[in-house]
Amino acid sequence: xxxxxYIAVMAVTTYLIRVIPFAAVRGxxxxxxxxxxxFYIPYAVLSAMTFPAIFFATGDVISSSVGTAVALVxxxxxxxxxxxxxxxxxxxxxxxxxxxSLI
Length: 103
Fold this sequence. Notes:
Helices cover about 80% and strands about 0% of the residues. It has helices at about 5-25, 30-55, 60-75, 80-100. α3 packs antiparallel against α4. It is flat and about 60 Å long. About 5% of the residues are buried.
């Protein structure tokens, strides 16, 4: 099959996934519970996709966990995103170096 066919099938699939909710729900959603659930779905999906990748990014769960812990602490203190990213990368790198030299 041609690459164009693959692209067309994915375009239709993506379009339908985005259009069906709008076609199914005509009016404004008045349920506070449903609104709160829909509000948190993007955060939950992003977390579900990101956290497994975080713990296997360095090839070692321990150094990845150190980097994640540093990132969470830095984010808790409202540091800029670039500082959190650089700090967590540095912490994971240093933890990997220290574990490599100790073993």
